[in-house]
């Protein structure tokens, strides 16, 4: 027997992509995600399993330490692994075969996210989102 609602202990994203380009199923696509505050209806949530923030982003203790290491020259700038980028591009094309999709956005681009201090998907991740929008013709939220 199938469940009628999403479980409270599952992941709020429908899919996750690791840095090797592997796609993992999270929350069943038939159920509303819980990844974008107040904006989950009609949204397919995809999370990239990679830190794509730059050291100057964020205001927590981790960001302070990253800024310190960056100032000392110990921080490499994050980058999207090529396999992850290719997989994401192909996966978006596959999803578009089955769903009407007209919008592609990073978490912080959706309404009501900045007030919560959201920095994801990070500056590097947001550059990827913008690049994918150009490739796919999708619009910003």
From TrEMBL:
Molecular function as annotated in GO: N-acetylmuramoyl-L-alanine amidase activity
Pfam families named in the record: Amidase_2
GO annotation terms (biological process): peptidoglycan catabolic process
All copies of domain N-acetylmuramoyl-L-alanine amidase, residue ranges: 9-123
InterPro entries named among the record's database cross-references: Amidase/PGRP_sf, Amidase_domain
Domain of life where this protein originates: Bacteria
UniProt source species: Paraburkholderia sartisoli
CDD domains named in the record: PGRP
Name of protein: N-acetylmuramoyl-L-alanine amidase
